[in-house]
Amino acid sequence: MKYQIYKAETRGRANHGWLITHHSYSFANYYQEDRIHFGALRVLNDDVIAAGTGFGRHPHENMEIITLPQKGALRHEDSMGNGSVIYPNDIQVMSAGTGIFHAEMNASETEACEIFQIWIFPNKQNVAPRYEQKSINDWRKDNQLYQILSPNQNEIGVWIHQDAWMYQGEYSQKTHETYSVHKENQGVMLFVIEGKVEFDGIMLNRRDAIEITDAEQIVFDVEKDSKILLIEVPLIF
């Protein structure tokens, strides 16, 4: 097993007034040659969007885009005719495929909206664009990891065009976790949303991350009052 730890303060940061963002990987004006992507995982942005503002209409193509609201409400509109508002404990996925325009705006005029946006390279190019939104509450479990995304349409959660899985966990008590990697040549990124995680004797704190390769199983301890996100992706794609 090999791993690399990235402390929260090493992420890229930008304050645009209407948007305060932290980038786990190179994005916009933040560039680190060794932090462009982790396998098929291209983007993990931690965004705080001011009230009444947001990302105006803009294009994407050939990317799987996942949004996880953490606070407030985000309004989505796209060129396929979809229009909706997503809230904490929702998950939204958009397969950009041959091309799509969309806008993401804070749905509140008085409160900030906080989201994670994740981009994953697809394993199929130029697919028909698609949109999906589900409530995580429908399959949420306490004090254990639960699946929120996979490559399979008939599994729990949303699905994308890539051999990738995402799990989330919220913990009200200290918990020992064992995660089994689904396939060979896959890597796992563990991101601490809130709280603390102990991995191989090292304590990870809020917004710290670890990238793990060459492992069939990953073992770690989650401290009480913690929330984590785990993303498994192909290293070669």
Automatic annotation (TrEMBL):
Keywords, ordered alphabetically: Iron, Metal-binding
Cofactor(s) in the UniProt record: Fe cation
What molecular function terms (GO) are annotated for this protein?
metal ion binding
Gene3D superfamilies xref list: Jelly Rolls
Pfam families, per database record: Pirin, Pirin_C_2
The signal peptide here is none
UniProt entry tagged with the keyword Ribonucleoprotein: no
Q: How is the cofactor bound?
A: Binds 1 Fe cation per subunit.
Q: Does the keyword Nucleus apply?
A: no
Domain Pirin N-terminal: from-to ranges = 12-120
Binding locations of Fe cation: 58, 60, 102, 104
User: Which ranges carry the Quercetin 2,3-dioxygenase C-terminal cupin domain?
Assistant: 148-233
Q: Which domain of life is it from?
A: Bacteria
What family does the entry list? Belongs to the pirin family.
**Protein name, per record:** Pirin domain protein
